[in-house]
């Protein structure tokens, strides 16, 4: 039986921490869907098609495994997407206790709604402090984000 998992996120923009989690999850599962989702609690910097494009290019440029599918989902429940593609696991990167507190109720709800389990992966310590929101702030103030994001994202943010 094929083990399929989903890594959801807003990826606004994708960071090296995201790619670290994606790469490690792709080694664990037979097929990994990296799903760009709309988060109603966040105000997006980049439109969804741009986030998808930057994510696809970052994965290709990073030489990540070829079992990764990039998709987007902006309507319905995340577990509906999981059911549609046959995924039984969600993978979430956890940087701190704040992330654990935020993600735990959702993990329990997703298991209750559709039997979808959630696996938490800890970040590489080099990326534990990096978030998309911090990258957006640094970029907006003219700072160098290249240590925190794939080159294609750094170039895009510097030109934008």
UniProtKB/TrEMBL annotation:
<comment type="subunit">
    <text>Homohexamer.</text>
</comment>
<comment type="pathway">
    <text>Cofactor biosynthesis; coenzyme A biosynthesis; CoA from (R)-pantothenate: step 4/5.</text>
</comment>
<comment type="similarity">
    <text>Belongs to the bacterial CoaD family.</text>
</comment>
<feature type="site" description="Transition state stabilizer">
    <location>
        <position position="18"/>
    </location>
</feature>
<dbReference type="InterPro" id="IPR014729">
    <property type="entry name" value="Rossmann-like_a/b/a_fold"/>
</dbReference>
<dbReference type="InterPro" id="IPR001980">
    <property type="entry name" value="PPAT"/>
</dbReference>
<feature type="binding site">
    <location>
        <position position="92"/>
    </location>
    <ligand>
        <name>substrate</name>
    </ligand>
</feature>
<feature type="binding site">
    <location>
        <begin position="10"/>
        <end position="11"/>
    </location>
    <ligand>
        <name>ATP</name>
    </ligand>
</feature>
<dbReference type="GO" id="GO:0005524">
    <property type="term" value="F:ATP binding"/>
</dbReference>
<keyword id="KW-0963">Cytoplasm</keyword>
<dbReference type="GO" id="GO:0004595">
    <property type="term" value="F:pantetheine-phosphate adenylyltransferase activity"/>
</dbReference>
<keyword id="KW-0547">Nucleotide-binding</keyword>
<feature type="binding site">
    <location>
        <begin position="93"/>
        <end position="95"/>
    </location>
    <ligand>
        <name>ATP</name>
    </ligand>
</feature>
<comment type="function">
    <text>Reversibly transfers an adenylyl group from ATP to 4'-phosphopantetheine, yielding dephospho-CoA (dPCoA) and pyrophosphate.</text>
</comment>
<keyword id="KW-0808">Transferase</keyword>
<feature type="binding site">
    <location>
        <position position="78"/>
    </location>
    <ligand>
        <name>substrate</name>
    </ligand>
</feature>
<protein>
    <recommendedName>
        <fullName>Phosphopantetheine adenylyltransferase</fullName>
        <ecNumber>2.7.7.3</ecNumber>
    </recommendedName>
</protein>
<keyword id="KW-0067">ATP-binding</keyword>
<feature type="binding site">
    <location>
        <position position="42"/>
    </location>
    <ligand>
        <name>substrate</name>
    </ligand>
</feature>
<dbReference type="Pfam" id="PF01467">
    <property type="entry name" value="CTP_transf_like"/>
</dbReference>
<keyword id="KW-0548">Nucleotidyltransferase</keyword>
<keyword id="KW-0460">Magnesium</keyword>
<dbReference type="GO" id="GO:0015937">
    <property type="term" value="P:coenzyme A biosynthetic process"/>
</dbReference>
<feature type="binding site">
    <location>
        <position position="10"/>
    </location>
    <ligand>
        <name>substrate</name>
    </ligand>
</feature>
<feature type="binding site">
    <location>
        <position position="18"/>
    </location>
    <ligand>
        <name>ATP</name>
    </ligand>
</feature>
<dbReference type="GO" id="GO:0005737">
    <property type="term" value="C:cytoplasm"/>
</dbReference>
<feature type="binding site">
    <location>
        <position position="103"/>
    </location>
    <ligand>
        <name>ATP</name>
    </ligand>
</feature>
<dbReference type="InterPro" id="IPR004821">
    <property type="entry name" value="Cyt_trans-like"/>
</dbReference>
<keyword id="KW-0173">Coenzyme A biosynthesis</keyword>
<feature type="binding site">
    <location>
        <begin position="127"/>
        <end position="133"/>
    </location>
    <ligand>
        <name>ATP</name>
    </ligand>
</feature>
């Amino acid at each position: 039986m094929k083990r399929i998992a989903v890594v959801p996120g807003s990826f606004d923009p994708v960071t090296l921490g995201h790619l670290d989690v994606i790469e490690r999850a792709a080694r664990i599962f037979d097929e990994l869907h990296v799903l760009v989702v709309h988060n109603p609690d966040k105000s997006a910097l980049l439109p969804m098609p741009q986030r998808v494009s930057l994510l696809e290019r970052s994965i290709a440029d990073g030489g990540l495994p070829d079992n990764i599918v990039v998709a987007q989902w902006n309507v319905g429940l995340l577990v509906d997407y999981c059911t549609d593609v046959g995924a039984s696991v969600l993978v979430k990167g956890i940087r701190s206790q704040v992330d654990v507190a935020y993600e735990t109720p959702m993990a329990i709800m997703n298991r209750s709604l559709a039997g979808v389990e959630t696996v938490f992966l800890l970040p590489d310590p080099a990326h534990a402090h990096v978030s998309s929101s911090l990258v957006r702030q640094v970029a907006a103030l003219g700072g160098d984000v290249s240590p925190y994001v794939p080159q294609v994202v750094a170039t895009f943010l510097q030109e934008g």
